[in-house]
Amino acid sequence: MKGALSWPFIRLYVLTLLYFSANSILNVIIPLQGEALGVTNTTIGIVMGAYLLTTMVFRPWAGQVIHRHGPIRVLRIILMVNGLALLIYSFMGLGGYLIARVLQGVCTAFFSMALQLGIIDALPDKDRSQGISIYSLCSYMPGIFGPLLAIGMWQTGEMSVFALSMVVIAVLTGFVGFTVRIERQPEERGGDTTTGNPVKMMLHAMGQLVRNPYLRRCGMLMLIASLVFGAVTAFVPLYAPQIQGGSAAVYLMIQAAVVVAARFLLRSHIPSDGQWNTPFIGGTMFMLISGSTAVGLAANVGSALFYSGALLIGIAQALLYPTLTTYLSFVLPKAERNVLIGLFVATADLGVSLGGIVMGPVSDITSYSFMYLICAILGILAASVALQRRMGRGKVTGTDGG
């Protein structure tokens, strides 16, 4: 095999699967542990949201650091820090979880940027969308088995099993991570010429979220959609028992399996030509709205609608991120591409964090069901952004093409 499915890239995908396995377990264990300790949904949301909120802060800087020092050197350092974070989960309580979530968030900022930018630099244009899609697929694949493992660990009543799993994942991830290699395409060498004062460059790059029409639109879409994804991850483990026949493990497994299947089966259909595909993206947002509505109404209707929501949200999650990332990899200025893609991914991180931090108080004041209906309304706002008049073609020149 060659291209995105060649052996060097398969090793990167295996590393991705191992790295995100811990989080698929933690996404279930942390809410359950919090509820058992009697803490509020607001507190649970803060602990859950701290992970990607930290990732968001460090992601743009990660793009610069990786450009200067290379993805492999950065990758090896952050894998050691990640191992430390997983050990904290093993030996400390909920208070320690917050510290570990922050450390893990820093690691994820550098890990995901190192692999995604490495894939973008190493693959030719025609294979780029497939590489990004398969990477993203592997980051969600642990969601198929992770929730089931987490529920099993929780039901045993022995947190030592959970602690051991974190240690094993840390060791395996470190071992595989120290053996991977990432080589850049010859024509890409020196393509990203980002130099100068890092602080000034970062402020300039952040201004592009407003000035750059391509980054502004994609960032807005990803922010709102990710808020819905984050609310699902944070509170489905607590919402599912309110639904007749509902199971958080089954829901999360269905959603993750759909993400994996859709990203693999549909990877060649994701646009990879630098064009804004309004029908494709609009249809994806419609599935997100429908899925959120189904989850919100499931408390009154039953588990069939609940699991239908998992199917629809899973498809939306599978398609939106790789589509927008690939599009931006073509239309952003090459000299700033690493940093600007880092900012875009940071909007996804922020959205997931807000899903826990903001929607936690909303669910405390109202209910889980009403909170998911609010998510559907936010999805409608995101769809209105996607369905605005077609974006202009070609690279950004500083004018508003949107």
Automatic annotation (TrEMBL):
Principal place where this protein is found? membrane
Q: Which InterPro entries match?
A: MFS, MFS_dom, MFS_Exporter, MFS_trans_sf
Q: Where is the Major facilitator superfamily (MFS) profile domain?
A: 8-394
Transmembrane feature ranges: 12-30, 42-62, 74-92, 98-120, 132-154, 160-180, 220-240, 246-266, 278-299, 305-332, 339-359, 365-387
Keywords, ordered alphabetically: Membrane, Transmembrane, Transmembrane helix, Transport
Concerning SUPFAM superfamilies, the annotation shows: MFS general substrate transporter (SSF103473)
Q: Name one Pfam family in it.
A: MFS_1
User: In what way does this protein cross or attach to the membrane?
Assistant: Multi-pass membrane protein
Q: Where in the cell is it found?
A: Cell membrane
Can you tell me which residues the record assigns to a coiled coil? none
Q: What protein does this entry describe?
A: MFS transporter
Q: Which organism is it from?
A: Paenibacillus mendelii
The top of its lineage is: Bacteria, Bacillati, Bacillota, Bacilli, Bacillales
